[in-house]
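Let us work through a complete example step by step.
Step 1: write down the sequence.
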Amino acid sequence: MVANHPPPRLLMLSLATSYLVVVNGFLVVAAAEEASSATTSDSVLGIRHKGFRGERELDDCQVSRLNSLEPKNRIQCEAGTIESWDPNEDEFQCVGVAVVRYIIESNGLLLPSYANAPQLIYIVEGGGIQGVVLPGCPETFQSSQQQSQHGGAHEFGEREELGERGAGKGRRRILDQHQKIRNFRQGDILAIPIGASHWVYNDGDRPIVAIVLLDTTNNLNQLDIYPRRFYLAGNPEQEHPSEGERGHHSQRPFSRHGGQGGGGEGEGGAACQNIFCGIDAEFMAEAFGVDLDVATRLQNENDKRNSIVKVEGRLQVLKPPRREREMERGSRRETEWESERYGRRGGYNEEFGSNKGEEEDDEQTENGLEETLCTMRLKENLADPRGADVYTQNVGRINTVNSHNLPILFWLQLSAEHGLLQSDAMMVPHWNMNAHSIIYVIRGRARVQVVDNTGKAVFNEDLQEGRILVVPQSFAVIKRAEREEFEWVSFKTSDNAMINTAAGGNSYIRALPDEVVANAYQISREEARRLKYNRKGTSVFRPRSGKKGFERRAEA
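Step 2: predict the structure and record it as tokens.
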């Protein structure tokens, strides 16, 4: 018998087909693994693809009216006050954030705590020092002294080490060592990563006023979207109490030595509310290597001082100098360092709220070595006029901070804006392209109008000092200062928030052809050109018409 062999061409075609099938299978598997790896990496880095903000109910932002909001809960502490806005308000539910205001008196210490959400803190008034404890980072601040013949002062927790050449050369006594302490001043924006414990101390002569935003719908928050603060010391009240708790403890008296009331469970609440309270004292003693009495003190039972306590004497910690001249020099050095490191990128682009040169920026990929976690900058001054991104003389200015000039905001997926309008000055109509905006009024008063997608004015009122206005993404907004200066800070839910302006230079109207404008608004070509080019300059300006005309149009 003669064997039937397939033709050579058919055999080659069959082999080629099999090869392509196998290679395609390998490519599919590799692509799946790469996608899985990328998703895992992005999750670790905190990049929000579809977190809580994208998974909430579709009608969360169906608001027919916006309101300017004031704090609903007030906690009186031994050395200050904590005021919180109700996170259940429709506006906060829409944008997925919570807001708190701290007032810390001179020599007051905000006890260490951490939260289930990234935080941005704007310093409205005052200055002090802050510690942010980052896990795995070394204690790089250390004080030491050479033991004298008369002996050094003994402090709790100090260690003694022999000199390198023996005890004959004296003993080196390490008094304290801890992680980095940062000075802050009025106008600073402070970034706190999720789960990082931090504390604040007022070493100045006037109170610190700080407004804090918690991004509870951030992808890294895997609890619910309700703000939760976990205290590591004291017996504090919750900043955002539930409906049943609101107002129940708000007037709880404090005493440095537990002078009033027992605060026990029989009085309607636990005797201790920091995280160590639920751990057995014997376990605590073993974990910290201390005796049972010290471990019990960590639980701060019946402590009535609340979360801002008065320091006895002054807080003696190793910290950088705070002399004004040195701070100014440090600010200049920091600006120069950032300029050399990231480049100027061509200046500020008003429409997009970021720097120009995006084409060049896209070509420069990050390798993760530009800035380590332990040395990453956590603050930037947002109110310095020298850093203004938009400026019109005798009219106003706008400063922005985003992931370009404060890289940690890339991981937090947040940014901020500080604005100042002189009397009667205006900011042109604009909308936030990729972020919600949470506006807090620092001082002054302004007429603000906000319009939704149906053309309805959902807010048309005066916005005054101490209040918050939430502007959802894509809603159009316009501001005009009253007889006094209007100053505000806006927190935005994107690390590189972008705006689009309706009038003025680099605006929507300027980018349209004359014929499109004429036909869209049913006006002549000459009127279309005036509409496009009459308003020149930046997005902040002083109107030609009087204030009364604006008020009449607003009322209409």
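Step 3: interpret the result. The first strand starts at residue 73 and ends at 77.
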